[in-house]
Each structure stands twice: as C-alpha cells, then as structure tokens.
Amino acid sequence: MNREGRAGNDSASQTGKEKNKWQKRIIQYSPAKGSRIMSEAPLISVEEAQKIIAAFPVNVNSETVPLLTAQNRVLARDSTAPFAVPEFDKSAMDGYAIISGDRSPVYEIVETIAAGTPPRRSVGRGQCAKIMTGAMLPPGADRVVKRECTIEENGSMRIVAEDRNRNVRVKGEDIQVGQRVLTKGTRLRAAQIALLASLGIADVATAKPPRIGILTTGSELVDPGTPLGPAQIYNSNYYSLAAQIGDCGAAPVALGRSADDLKPTAALISSCLTRCDLLIVSGGVSAGDFDFVPTAMQQAGVTMHFQKIAVQPGMPTVFGGRGDKAVFGLPGNPVSTFVIFAVFIQPLIMRLLGHDFRPRMAKVTLGSGYRRSQAARSAFLPLRLRDGRAEVLVYHGSAHLHALSQADALLYVPAGQSEISSGSTVDVRCL
Questions:
Q1: Residue pLDDT tens, the chain, 431 long
Q2: CATH number of 23-60+208-352: 3.40.50.620, 3.40.640.10, 3.40.50.720, 3.40.980.10?
Q3: In 3-state terms, what secondary structure has residue 72?
Q4: Has this prediction a pTM greater than 0.85?
Q5: Long-range CB contact pairs, 235-242, < 8 A, 24+
C-alpha cells in the first residue's frame, strides 16, 4: 500500500453544518509569508471533472511498425483491402467440383486440386474435379459436393446422399477490393492483427505510445524487495500505475521518488515534464503538513484546472497542464490511485493514442442491498460478479487493496443516492 496521509481524510463524509457542500479547504504555499495558508477551492462533480479532462487538447504522434509490434496499439490511418477476399472462387469443403444442375449418374474425375495449386483443366457435364478445402474452383464448376455424400471408385465419383449446400466461397464475398476493413482509432488486438496479416500487410501505421511519467512522493516509501524500516511502507502505487498504463498500450516512465519537501518537489515536477507526455504524481495532495504537490505543481508552471472532485475514493485529486503536457496529482491511498486512474486518466491516455475510449459496461443484478449514511459525493465501489449477479465487497476504505484485488467491476453510485435495494439491476464498469 502507499501513503495514507491523515486518517480518514479520503473517506471523511461531509456534514449538514458545512455552509457549502461544494467547497473544501485546500493548503497552498505563501511565498511572501514563507508559510502555508488555507484557501478555498471548488469541489466539482465527477461529470464536470470528466468534461474538463476531455476538453484538454492532445497531440497524437504516429509511426509505422512491423505488424506484431503493432499489437495493442491504435491504428493511425484507415486500412483498406488491396485485393478481394476470397481472392478467387474456392471450395469450402473437401469434395468434388461439378456443374450445378448436372444430374449425371457417374462423374469422371479429371484432376485432383490441392489448396495452393491452380486447376489445370475445366469441368464439363459428366465430369468433376476432386478438390480440397480452400483450393481454387476449376473453370466450369460452380458447386462442390462434399466427400461424405459421395463414393469414389475406378477414377469416377457417384453421389450417394443429398448435399443441398453449394459449398463454394465466392470471390469478394467477405471483402471487396479497396474496402475499408479497419478504421483509424481501432485498437489492434489479435483478431485485427490476423485480418491485416491475411491481407498481406506487414507494416502498419499506429499511434506512437505516449510516455506516461510516474513520480511518487513520500519519505516513508521503499521499493518491494527492500526490507522495511520502522514506519516505512512499500511503494505499491508505482507498480499499480505502471501496470494500468501498460494495459492502455502506453509506455510507463519511472521518474523516481520525491521526499516531502516543497521546493525539491516543484523542481522535480518541472524536470519530469520535459521527459514525458503526461505526468502522474502519486501522493502529497491532501491537507496534511507534508502534502505539497498542488502548490509544487503551480510553482512548476502548471495551470490548475481543478483541485477537488466530489468522489469517493479520490477526492483530493488535482489536474492541470503546462503547455501540451497534462499533470495529475493523485491521493496516495492505493485504491484511490487505482480508481482515479481507471475513471479519469485512462480516457485521456487513450486519446493520446488516438482512440475514443469507452469503458466496458455490463448490466447485473445486485445480490444484496447497499446503503450509505452520507451521499454528498459520488462513489465507486468494488464488486464481485458471479453468474450475472453482483456483490459489493467488504471494503474498509481507500487503503484496502485486498478488496480491490478481488473485484471484477466498479459500481458507480451518484451523489445524492444513499441506497440501492437488493435485486436492483445496475450498470457496472468492468475491470
């Protein structure tokens, strides 16, 4: 797990005594006074935060790479077919090629045609060609009788059972010459790679994977594999973010760790922005005495677009930009980091890849009811899916990685909704 900041900060609920439920205090640094002061920043909705991020301009760079290198990348240009598919009329079965309507009692076998070997002779009435699956149909023939419906003897073939199918794949029935087969923005999975290979395409223009920098903060963090000292914890957030970035098809860039100190953090953020296309800073965004990241971002020249989201987990999330570089500051709690990435950062990374991302959704039945006492913020809850039913996992808050590791999906509960009854049909976001 990663740094948790003040106990309960990320999961604290708002009370009716607050004058404005859409305002939260934030800490900023006052250079004139040499100290930190309290100020107000708007607490925006999930939907508003998503709109702000969606409006951030991106540049998509492309490059041509070998076909297998293109796996999981995004197509930078439409792909069109250089030839028809099938390329010629071909047999869909092992059998005998004949003329439709020829009712001869016996057919002379004029040749045997293997796949990859062009026919040498044409077929007339009372004649057939023994043909293998995928082989080119000989001139004159327009039907194949499958082998199971025939008997072959002494160089001849007789049809002994009815075969109502034509068993021929006609030239161009799948794809026409020049037809667009894949559109720009398509994610190249195994099926798309296979299609391009079948069309003889060895190299493909794809979006160049953006470099996504990861900077973690926290003097208490050590890397896995290193013995823990007193009051130290393992830096899980780097590994979580790097894995999620890799799943997007982007390139995670390790930019090290910053101690809880304002000026070095600001200098490091500024330096990191020259080495990546998008920067994620993990930790240091809450209201603790050593949470300097929002102020450090501003000192590094980042224009802040929002600094709080009415969401649980992940309320202290901040977002800004310097030039064409986007910067996110995430809460250090590991579940917050994971959820905020999935909901807010992944769509922006996919736009950098030229892909119009849509989360995979599913309709499921909630096996047991859900209720919360405070509903001022939207919430994302970990769910386990089994046979079309969903159960909210026992969840102890935004540091509970074990519950997240058991989850198949996230249930979105909008602000203002405090209860979902058992048996309700809900839309969930698949992980």
A1: 444 333 333 333 333 433 333 334 333 434 333 334 334 668 999 999 999 999 999 999 999 999 999 999 999 999 999 999 999 999 999 999 999 999 999 999 999 999 999 999 999 999 999 999 999 999 999 999 999 999 999 999 999 999 999 999 999 999 999 999 999 999 999 999 999 999 999 999 999 999 999 998 877 787 888 888 888 887 888 999 999 999 999 999 999 887 777 888 899 999 999 999 999 998 877 665 557 888 999 999 999 999 999 999 899 999 999 999 999 999 888 888 999 999 999 999 999 999 988 888 988 899 888 888 888 999 898 889 888 788 888 776 666 777 788 888 898 999 999 999 999 998 888 88
A2: 3.40.980.10
A3: coil
A4: no
A5: 235/2, 236/1, 236/2, 236/334, 236/401, 237/2, 237/282, 237/283, 237/330, 237/332, 237/334, 237/337, 238/214, 238/282, 240/334, 240/337, 240/338, 240/341, 241/214, 241/280, 241/282, 241/337, 241/341, 242/214
Residue in the structure block whose two tokens are 């995670």? 252
Tell me the CATH architecture of domain 64-84+174-207. Alpha-Beta Complex (3.90)
Domain boundaries 361-430, corresponding CATH code: 2.40.340.10
